[in-house]
Amino acid sequence: MAEMLNQNFEAVILDMDGVITQTARLHAKAWKKMFDDFLQSRDGADFKPLNLDKDYNTFIDGIPRFDGVRSFLKSRNISLPEGGPDEDGQEPSVYSLGMRKNEIFLGLLKKEGVHVYEDTIQTVKKWKKEGLKIAVISSSKNAEYILDSAGVQNLFDVRVDGVISEKEGLSGKPAPDIFLEAAALLGAAPEKTIVVEDAIAGIKAGKSGGFGLVVGVARKGEASEMEDAKADIVVKQLTEIYSSNK
């Protein structure tokens, strides 16, 4: 681990939800509420609820919102129209389900607030002192609001979020587009850049993008899955990556 970190890295790109902010849990809670309500209204008492360990981690976590809707529906062999802002909302669609999930998430965010992972903030500050350039990425269109609410927006030189991804036509994870865009904006070569992720889709994106080091943060105990996805380092807290240098 120490040998890897002693390489001449120029930049770090961190995912936001679950790495920097403690919002991944709220996202999961919102997805479950939205889909369970939809499935129950569709299938009645026989509905099969969304399983956070299996369904959420496999089909939803780490990817753009509407891609997550499509992915989970496909896993259940459910076909819905795409819909859009002009629909009447009477019939469910990919768009209406995605917007409902966001509505639930924002409600939870307002109620519970935004908290950060101190291990990440401590490590980011260490990297900044060492002269590394720092970017935050997120598939969320709420990223700017969340970072501002947490008071950590100023720690990052670059932010690439769901708003920018849509504007630039970037493909969602596991495609590496969002990481490559962040590296380009930082002026850093991928092979000289560290990627920090808590989602399997993000780890796969970092590996396929040719980044120099992909770190998996297994806060929920998913270390083996991250290792299977070829993460170079897997830790429970980000400060652990320096533990072998003590």
UniProtKB/TrEMBL annotation:
SUPFAM superfamilies for this protein: HAD-like
Annotated catalysed reactions: beta-D-glucose 1-phosphate = beta-D-glucose 6-phosphate
Highest taxon of the lineage: Bacteria
Keyword entries, A-Z: Carbohydrate metabolism, Hydrolase, Isomerase, Magnesium, Metal-binding, Phosphoprotein
Known EC number: 5.4.2.6
InterPro entries: B-phosphoglucomutase_hydrolase, Beta-PGM-like, HAD-like_sf, HAD-SF_hydro_IA, HAD_sf, PGP-like_dom2
Cofactors: Mg(2+)
Pfam family of the protein (one): Hydrolase
GO terms, molecular function: hydrolase activity
Family: Belongs to the HAD-like hydrolase superfamily. CbbY/CbbZ/Gph/YieH family.
PANTHER family xref list: 6-PHOSPHOGLUCONATE PHOSPHATASE, HEXITOL PHOSPHATASE B
Protein known as: Beta-phosphoglucomutase
Organism field: Marivirga lumbricoides
